[in-house]
Amino acid sequence: MARAVLYSSWKSSASFRTRIGLAWKGIEYEYRGINLQTNENFDAAYASLNPSSKVPTLLLDDDVLTQSAAILEYLDETRPARPLFPTNPKERTKVRAFCMAIAADIQPLQNLATLRKVGALVSPDEAEEAKLAWVDHWVTRGFGAIEAMLVKSAGKYCFGDTISMADVYLYPQVFNARFYKVDLTAFPHITRIADRLATEPAFMAADPHAMPDRPQP
């Protein structure tokens, strides 16, 4: 069977969480960076693999897999060692709801395509400030809901003392919040868990600053 290939962008939350999942499951892969800043994701060669022109795209098990949520569930279903979802249906549903509170309610509002639109609505000299204010508003609002969930569910990690898919989703979102200088003082559960996850090997291996397509100084 051919080695896995991951098309990824260094800071993309969806790419980041997929890299965490691959590392957690011990799956080695070839990394192919896609530059979203230069619109490489819209090149015909890449669009032929992934018609939505999004990242990530994973070549695995002789197939082409897209959408990080679908990829991560596939990995957990086909590689049951080190499971990321609870076996109890109610608990599994709660973890999925937590993940969607990030993937549906926060991430799309601060991704590159959205921020480009926000910047285009104001003058060029106001664009950067407008983007940061937009991110701050939506991440702060979304993290308010996440923090409230964690008050009820958290132990060492998002759900008790075992790493779950919720942690795989949370950590990249915290990375992006810090990248955009969002004040996280009001979210002690979020920051405590993220700081603990930062010491986990699978999360360290997936770190954007370790990716070959990261911006060079």
UniProtKB/TrEMBL annotation:
Report the InterPro entries cross-referenced here: Glutathione-S-Trfase_C-like, Glutathione-S-Trfase_C_sf, Glutathione_S-Trfase, Glutathione_S-Trfase_N, GST_Zeta, GST_Zeta_C, Thioredoxin-like_sf
Q: Does the keyword Transcription regulation apply?
A: no
Give all residue intervals belonging to the GST N-terminal domain.
2-83
Pfam families recorded: GST_C_2 (PF13410), GST_N (PF02798)
Q: Does the keyword Isomerase apply?
A: yes
Q: One MF term from GO for this chain?
A: maleylacetoacetate isomerase activity
BP-aspect Gene Ontology terms: glutathione metabolic process; L-phenylalanine catabolic process
User: PROSITE patterns attached here?
Assistant: GST_CTER (PS50405), GST_NTER (PS50404)
Q: Which GO terms describe its cellular component?
A: cytoplasm
Q: Can you tell which superkingdom this protein's organism belongs to?
A: Eukaryota
Q: Which UniProt keywords apply?
A: Isomerase
The record places domain GST C-terminal at 88-217
NCBIfam families in the record: maiA (TIGR01262)
Q: What is stated as this protein's family in its record?
A: Belongs to the GST superfamily. Zeta family.
What is the recorded name of this protein?
Answer: Maleylacetoacetate isomerase
Q: Tell me the organism.
A: Saprolegnia parasitica (strain CBS 223.65)
Q: What is the lineage of its organism?
A: Eukaryota, Sar, Stramenopiles, Oomycota, Saprolegniomycetes
